[in-house]
């Protein structure tokens, strides 16, 4: 009996010792990392947020500024939006990993990754504040580090102050460390991408400064950027475009390529877009719209846009029905969108383009906010850049010629002539064309400038008013009610018609 007890005791001691010595090793899964590197986080953040930008352009951005219109399920076109949480969820859902990149890069002294992360943080928070107004900003990423689960809402003015500071810091940081960017699916990574990220940082600063130019005197800041291109490089050609190139095969194709044809064809070219481009014989019209299937006379190539804001029946029956109105152009088409077979990666995921930068500079120069350069030159550069962009990406088999007619730039509707207001209207209208499919940027810019004219459709459900913001997500009432309530008290009624700070 004593021998048996000794054996049992010895086995127990052996097992206890073995467990004590090897517990952590046995219970650690070597295939599940406990920490990731910035490059692994960066690729996912870029892909997710740019794809969300494409989706927001399709669902609301193109509709509200009347690039496209709907012929079925027309609620969006009539401003019956309900909750619009896509931007909120995209920004705050991805901001955790942006902050993780910032933390990892800071700890490792990786200034290139830190600069890129600050740029992306700035772009994302710009989307959120322009869509909603006051938002959680300074405390938004402190749940893990500071236990802040109900972050305060900062004023939009404070948010823009932070955004501009981060973009300036990013410009200073990039190129001051030796790590090579990996995971950079936007600019290709490597040493060559650093210059393009710096140009994006300063180009986004131009956009942000012009956005708040009605509330602050931004002339000195704008002039400092354009007067010292060595220190503050900005986009210089279409080669600098921040535009994600998709792949020909799944799962990284153009996000709308796999759409059901019925869902895709609910959206058609808008009468506002088609009529404006027809009026100036603009060669980009076939890029944005397809000829109608049933023209007014046999063999005629005809483009007909749908008026925005029609009810279900008049929208579906406009000009004799769906075959009498133009579909969205083939470069933005889906898998089953007729002949010729659409190429799955023609369209890009746009963040910012050289054309937009030129239009920003044209406006700033025309308003005497900067003294460098010619407003007319910037304006003409912007038009040509957008046309050249489409020349470069539209496949030859589509048979689309984006070369303008010889008299395009001298005709009254395009030539840089007239009063200051008329010139600003030409800048704004050409910029509006160039912002097609660039998320909500066309809407944000229209709210600031009022150019071009956007008239609510006859069957709109918002009292003949174009919406000027998104209401906060309802989840915020339950999860962060006190801080949301303070923001609403400060900002105004939480609805589609309360202008944000820079728009008041």
Automatic annotation (TrEMBL):
<keyword id="KW-0732">Signal</keyword>
<dbReference type="InterPro" id="IPR041662">
    <property type="entry name" value="SusD-like_2"/>
</dbReference>
<dbReference type="Pfam" id="PF12771">
    <property type="entry name" value="SusD-like_2"/>
</dbReference>
<keyword id="KW-0449">Lipoprotein</keyword>
<dbReference type="InterPro" id="IPR011990">
    <property type="entry name" value="TPR-like_helical_dom_sf"/>
</dbReference>
<protein>
    <submittedName>
        <fullName>SusD/RagB family nutrient-binding outer membrane lipoprotein</fullName>
    </submittedName>
</protein>
<feature type="signal peptide">
    <location>
        <begin position="1"/>
        <end position="20"/>
    </location>
</feature>
